[in-house]
Predict the structure.
Amino acid sequence: MRIASLTIAIIALAGCGRDVETPPAHPIADMVIQNGNIVTVEDAAPRAEAVAITGDRITAVGSRAEILPYIGDNTEVIDLGGMTAIPGFIEGHGHYTSFGGSLLILDFRYAKSFAEIVAMVEAAVAETEPGEWIIGRGWHQDKWEVKEDVLVEGLPLHDSLSAVTPDNPAMLIHTSGHGVFVNQKAMTLVELGDDTEPPEGGEIVRDENGRATGMMRESAQDVFRQAFSGHQGRRPAGVAEEEMRRMVTLAGEESLRHGITSFQDLGTSFAEVDLIRKMADEGKLPVRLWMAFEEQAADMEDRLADYRMIGYGNHFLTVRAIGEKVLDGALGTHGGWLLEPYADLPRSSGLNVVPIEEIEASARLAIEHDYQLAIQGIGDRAYRELLDIYAAEFAKYPEKTDLRWRIEHAQVIHPDDIDRTVALGVIPAVQGIFACSDGPWVVDRLGPERTKERGYIFNTLAEAGLVPTNGTDPPVDEIDPIGSFYCSVTRILPDGTRFQPQETYSRERAIYSYTMGNAIAAFEEDIKGSLTPGKLADITVLSQDLLTVPDDEIMNTEIVMTIVGGKVRYRNGEIIQ
Ligand SMILES: [Zn+2]
């Protein structure tokens, strides 16, 4: 029998000669990206020229000649013309819906005068129903190049603003968050008049005639914020859902514009996940999400098991973490919890914000339900407390070994805690950009010695064997992987000096941190983080090679194209549905 069938096979081959139709050893690709400088983030073959994609997966990576046979009649071929393709950027720490929300409201950060702000409000009024609030943020009077004629304590009067907003209350939030500027309609709404006393800890700024100018400082803004959130809360459920959907879409599209294909969201709620899961079912999530619950431990107990999902909706939604409760505050406001007092505020070592017991309760839940834990620890005391809490919980379950619990921000770390972090398998989830946005004042807070030893020691952590990570914490900082990459590899501050220059990442490590490193921090290295056959086809195309361009040209790098799951979702300035 064996001889017979072998004979038939030989005859068949001979009969067909060279025209024999043997099936290809590989599938014809849906898409081939070629003629590029492909940075794979794969040790074995770090560079390639072409990538073949079938469905939402990478099927082959190699030279142009190697990938050529994957091109069939229906293959979409993208010619990169020598541009650089990398694995899609993964934002390692952000706040997805509040980022989306920040895109819904007016952005005054770049306004050069109060008149410009009023003009932006006037344009928004044209698209807003009467009675709805107009909200904006980010203004700062010191950025205004043109000043108003009448100023009270450096601030304008509300009249020009009120003139364009007769039917809409308006609240314009100062960039510091410590005050708001409101219009007449808002003041009428909360019944604030010429004789209204300011609340304790607040200030209603008035002109020489005792008339409120519109500026409300500190607690004087509370009544307006409450009126706004009360109004929002009274809207029908459908309106609120529609708004949340817009936030999800806006945040995703802004991510795509910046080459981000996955976004790790620190701090969501059960209600938010319900809606986002619905959008995943509808195929309406623009980028892939990894989400961490920020709920009270008591409220999570009975629900965590039902909500754990990994790779839901074609790998667009993963919920497997609890975060980001904040163990401490920020360094800028002397809130970061330090082992020793602040150099510039010796009476204080910072603040413990969320009680240790609440973090411990979350830790218990996380380990019981197989969730990661990702708690904010900015100062070295907070960092150490978290290691203690994590270690105590791990010790109860010696059989659980690969847990990848994270400490978010990890800006100040005592050298004694580095080896412990490695031993526990804990991941410090750091943001490269913060070294440059905080760099100008960190030395004041910590003093030079402590800064050198413990401040933003991101490369020291990586050298010790910890997973390098990256991100910009949007909307706290701009969503901007290029900016964070630039800071990660240069540590150049706005004034041209360098902050902790010995802590720069190599170019390769910086790319790795934003791709593979962040993927590992979410248990996703088997599907993301490198351009490898079998992984999701999430790819970002850059105008130039981040591994080789000179330092001072890095910031000119443009995001040319963003591909998610084999679909081009952003190209040359346009979002593609
Ligand atoms: Zn954050």
